[in-house]
Amino acid sequence: MAALGGDGLRLLSVSRPERQPESAALGGPGPGLCCWVSVFSCLSLACSYVGSLYVWKSELPRDHPAVIKRRFTSVLVVSSLSPLCVLLWRELTGIQPGTSLLSLMGFRLEGIFPAALLPLLLTMILFLGPLMQLSMDCSCDLADGLKVVLDMRWLRNQVIAPLTEELVFRACMLPMLAPCTGLGPAVFTCPLFFGVAHFHHIFEQLRFRQNSVGSIFLSAAFQFSYTAVFGAYTAFLFIRTGHLIGPVLCHSFCNYMGFPAVCAALEHPQRRPLLVGYALGVGLFLLLLQPLTDPKLYGSLPLCVLLERAGDSEAPLCS
């Protein structure tokens, strides 16, 4: 982390158009200190979010309806207060983004329809194989579907978790990290907080002895890797579209689908068409990733405006 004060991480000044020493242009603390403020703010948000899950003392497992309802309350409170952390960060660093705080966090009307539809379509293309697999194996009827929707776990996984996690770990963290690291490194730095935040599941699994210790830690390592990759993807979507709605919908969809059951596909009676679907989905996803997230489709991007004011007009994710 020594790079925070050196060449590895840079703080982009945004107060004046002309090139000046960064600390002077900011009118506040030096670049190294401002980067530490950004990192500490993100760490505080992550700890607050996870800590809110444990303010309620209970001997019940996490999937019990009573536990879910209590956690809804605490998580919604923390998430609602999280923009205040961005506001405090702005005051401490002296950075003026040139746009409203809500717009910077992805709450804006310009380009909202393509921002809601295109990222979700792109994600569904990636999951073409798993969607084919689900359609072949699912025998659910309308009554079963209604039962699932009314279940508290569905509400947690498909509504509350995607909304609050994307708000805290993308909408609040990326505006604080981007002026310090640049957009590219922020895409990969932000998910680390998101991945580490999921380690709290280890304690619950150990507490209720849901598996062997080795299996629990192996599962946690896999979950960290998966959530970090997913977090980088939604951070990319957030930057390229300038909207929060796309990452939230993609998060909800991925929570519903889960990790692709590749091993089950290899043993499926319809293995060949499924494997073609898997390969075609990945290929089309890579082909359409840039066109469907072209910033021109979504209007002016607040994070890119922030970096342009800082003199970093060549940010590759902005074009």
From TrEMBL:
Signal peptide: none annotated. Pfam families: Rce1-like. The keyword Transmembrane helix applies. Its EC number is 3.4.26.1. GO terms for biological process: CAAX-box protein processing. The chain crosses the membrane at residues 109-129, 216-239, 245-266, 273-292. It is found in: Endoplasmic reticulum membrane. It is a multi-pass membrane protein. It catalyses: Hydrolyzes the peptide bond -P2-(S-farnesyl or geranylgeranyl)C-P1'-P2'-P3'-COOH where P1' and P2' are amino acids with aliphatic sidechains and P3' is any C-terminal residue. It is an enzyme of class 3 (hydrolase). Its main location: endoplasmic reticulum. One of its GO terms (molecular function) is metalloendopeptidase activity. Residues 154-257 form the CAAX prenyl protease 2/Lysostaphin resistance protein A-like domain. InterPro entries: Rce1, Rce1/LyrA-like_dom. Keywords: Endoplasmic reticulum, Hydrolase, Membrane, Protease, Transmembrane, Transmembrane helix. GO terms for cellular component: endoplasmic reticulum membrane. Belongs to the peptidase U48 family. This is CAAX prenyl protease 2. It comes from Galemys pyrenaicus.
